[in-house]
Amino acid sequence: MIPSKEEFFNGLAAKHGLELQKKFEAASVAVCGAGGLGSNIAIVLARAGVGRLKIIDFDKIEITNLNRQQYFADQIGLFKAQALKENLAKIAPYCEVTAEVAKITEENVTELLKGFPIVCEAFDKAEAKAMLVNTVLENMPETYLVSGSGMASLNSANLIKTRKITDKFYLCGDLTNDVAAGNGLFGARVLVCAAHQAHAVLRIIAGEFDC
Amino acid sequence: MTKVNGKTEAVTGLNIAEIVEKFGYNKARVAVELNGNIVPKAKYAETVVKENDTLEIVSFVGGG
Q1: Less CB within 10 Å around the terminal CB: N or C of chain B?
Q2: Is B29 part of the contact surface with chain A (CB cutoff 8 Å)?
Q3: Backbone angles phi, psi at A11, to 5 degrees
Q4: How do the pLDDT tens digits run along chain A, 211 residues long?
Q5: Minimal Cβ distance to A166: which of B36, B60, B63
Q6: ipTM for the predicted complex
Q7: What is the distance in angstroms between the Cα of B57 and the nearest Cα belonging to chain A?
Q8: B3-59: what fold?
């Protein structure tokens, strides 16, 4: 028996406080990429009671994703955006989730992210991260952007931090450990970075703009 | 003095494209902020750094 929307809200308000829960419920967040960062960010935000999420990803789930990405074994082969929407519906049934199977490019960024004042960059390729960050900061100056860079390797999780680069741009990660340098991606360390990003989003929603 | 990623560097008079190259960054992987504002990629060559500017070069690495 799934609790009612009101019961869900009251349960969350009991943990977060009523005023903050109203802000979370009124918030809209777009998550660009539904891999190790994005799937975890989306689940944390949905659990917190964020009202509206848009998940954008073009990729399908592979067996090598399951060490860190929030999918089930029987979802291998499905589009990540759609599978994540299904999983989110079980976790947070009143979160309004839009799943978009699409590759984000310089040309479609503004259209895809319209109506979402907070955006998480959760891609895996460095060039894609740079493209999204540059395009959003250049063309959507009112948008808050939370990006992740540097979470590969088995190095200390304590190296991962949140930095505020400009008024609207937050950067999480260790900034240096590149998966391309032969570093592995370890679930716990990727989740630390995802948690930094999700927490930065919740703080922005709460009106806490320092990091 | 001009600061690049928090450190004082002799870059006054150089443009952003020159500075990105000087420090060995891959242009396709960076986002550059000058005094807290993003520098559009199309303006790297024409944006010259002045004395007392603060430059932040974010160089993204892969993984996610």
Answers
A1: N
A2: yes
A3: -65, -40
A4: 999 999 999 999 999 999 999 999 999 999 999 999 999 999 999 999 999 999 999 999 999 999 999 999 999 999 999 999 999 999 999 999 999 999 999 999 999 999 999 999 999 999 999 999 999 999 999 999 999 999 999 999 999 999 999 999 999 999 999 998 889 999 999 999 999 999 999 999 999 999 8
A5: B36
A6: 0.96
A7: 10
A8: Ubiquitin-like (UB roll) (3.10.20)
Residue extents of the structural domains in chain B = 3-59
Q: Cβ contacts (< 8 Å) between A183 and chain B: which residues?
A: 63
Total domain count for chain A? 1
Looking up residue A49, the CATH number of its domain turns out to be: 3.40.50.720
Question: Does the residue A159 lie in any domain?
Answer: yes
Q: Is A211 inside a domain boundary?
A: no
Give the distance, in angstroms, between the CA of residue A123 and the centroid of all CA atoms in the same chain.
Answer: 10
Residues paired with B57 in a beta bridge:
B32
CB distance from A130 to chain B under 8 Å? yes
Q: Is A32 on the interface with B (CB under 8 A)?
A: no
A171 domain residue, yes or no = yes
